[in-house]
Amino acid sequence: MNSREPSLTPDLARLRDLWSQLWSGVPRRQDRLRWLFAPDLLTFGYAVRTTITSLIALGIALWWELGSPQWAALTVWMVAQGTRGKSVAKARWHLFGMVVGTIFAVALVAACPQQPLLFILLLAVGIGLFCFVGTLLPGPATMTNYRIHGMRASGFTYAIIALDGIADPEHIFQIAMARATYIVLGIVLESSVSSLFQFRLGERARDRLSHNFLTAIDGAARALSDLLGGDGQALTRARGVFSTITTLSDQIEFAEVELGRHHGHEGDHARAALARVAVLLSRGLDLSALLHMPGHVEGDVFGTTAASVRTFLLALPARLQAGDIQPSLLQLAGLRATCRQAIADSLGEEMGSDSRAPASEDEARGLQWQRMLHHALDAMLEDLEGAITQFEASLHPLPHDHFHYRIKTFRDWRLAGANSLRASITIFGAGVIWIATGWSVGLLFLMFVSIVCSLFSTLEKPALATQAFLTGALWAVGVSAVLVLWTLATPSTFEVLALCLSLPMLAGGLAFAYPTIILAAVSYNLFLPILVGPDNQGRLDEVTFFNTAMPLVLALWYAMWSFRLVLPNDTNAMRWQMRSEILKGLRHVARAPSLPTTIFVVERNVDRFVRLLTNAGETPEPVIDAYLQGTLSAMTIGLNIIRLRRILARNLLPVAATQVIEAMMGRMEQFSGRYGGHYGRTARAAKLASQRIAAQAGHEDNLGVRMEMDRALASLNVISYELDTNRMFFDASSPYLDTAFG
């Protein structure tokens, strides 16, 4: 029976639910505001410390009677971070960027004091240049990478000094020194005050390095143990481990800062250990491909070895956390010896002896498969041994250690050019608006647009970041309106001013630690001092306040839409370009005169993997999964091509086997055509090569050559399996994989 009760609108339904909860006394969840009324101790300490520091910087700037004291407080909020290492690293690069930006700004104003159009053009080109260089610097384009922040600070300083100086070019040097003074004051105060709240800094930094590795090795060990337990999709579900490794590796430089100038090479060893974990997972992909081959028998020798390794992997993270490193390395060496002994026993059983006949053809095929699995397992354990060794070196620095593991840089010149052009066009358009309209506060509008372009044009999603920034700016406008138009109308001493600003600043500091609103919190913290505009000579009146707030909101709105319209982030084009680069990369690995290292191939593809996850957006999940699987598959193929080339370089294979592998490599050298049908010929060449090597191996009597042929056969089988499994990704006959899931 249909109910006669009228349906409630969503608003009325929510009001009814709220009333029922209040009447019944049931507590309501307030998770969205938990950061404000129930922050953790570290977040509260950061907010209090930064608020006090920014107020001290503001007080000193007022005491010195500087013209725009709000920039000192703003700099504190720009530099302050949750940990000492991040704060110091960001302060260093911010100071470097300030020096570069100041020099460029003085040169710009001196070059064209009476030529506004040329001034705007050079301003846009200069910030575009900083964005171009920042995109090419090491590390991902995130707000936590402070090399890139150095270039952002350069553009930021370049804009505020040049735009202030162009209105009074005769005093550009004094203006530049004043702005530099604010920035230096904010940096020095933040670094000094934050150092007072840091205890056991070096010990906590080493603990962080240890925790990073244990986090990565725990995820890798669980995935590999599930794989050895028979779960063929274990590595597919563990894709997040690659993102974790990238994130943790990016944070190591901050721990190095906290260790001080007298630290050894703990950070280098920690980076190398995390890279080895990524290589370890790539070995797991090889093993997964070989396990999909027919021939597995329950209770076989490999099953016994895999069970022992699985038990070891499950217990490894806890043992390493307890400091049980040397016994773990000894047990690991024993497992590797077991693998090598199983390989030798298998060869002996297949080839026979005086008292035993050689194995039949079917038995030989099964024994050969067992050897390939043991070879792959031994190689995986070797990489695990290298990771643990590097981990131990990061915990216990070696005397006279000269080990260095540099941060890898994967430069994308096309992306750098797009970021630069996007920033330049946006700033030049804002300048044209100012000149065409003759807006009295057009310089302020142009300054805010330049600041946003300096900060966000190097991000992969600048429009979304600017939208979040606009939200924070609107909150800053609302809070500052209350302060300027009501609360700060009567105070005449700095103490009362600081008291009025303390609670709004404290709220912004608490919001900074909440991940979902972090960009809005940054915007709020930056623009609140500008909108309040404290001054020794008077108070901000209503007209001046609105003439500051309106250009700010319009500048952020203009920049947001400009980022959406000018060279927008096209995820389809990005994925196609990445897919094309992967295919060309396989061709390069097959034909390059100098062979790339396995770690380089792994880190390059992990970087692509993380970028795909970052730019997933609203892309259908099957498409993203296919691209992620294809990237990992391409990494696996590239690593096995390197192993085949090393086998050829050792020159231990028979002539016939060498010719077969060289023919397959010749096909792989042409594996980057877009519409040439190269996929089918390459896949057939890999399958044919594995069949011929398997047939030739049965007639080889030399044990050393036989083992080398088994290694080559394992790599060929992995390549053939990956090409067959991910045909949609590697067959470039269509420009986009997305159409396959339409």
Automatic annotation (TrEMBL):
GO terms for cellular component: plasma membrane. One of its GO terms (molecular function) is transmembrane transporter activity. Keywords: Membrane, Transmembrane, Transmembrane helix. InterPro entries: PHBA_efflux_AaeB/fusaric-R (IPR006726). Coiled coil: none annotated. The keyword Transmembrane helix applies. The chain crosses the membrane at residues 44-64, 93-111, 117-137, 179-199, 432-457, 469-489, 496-524, 544-567. This is FUSC family protein.
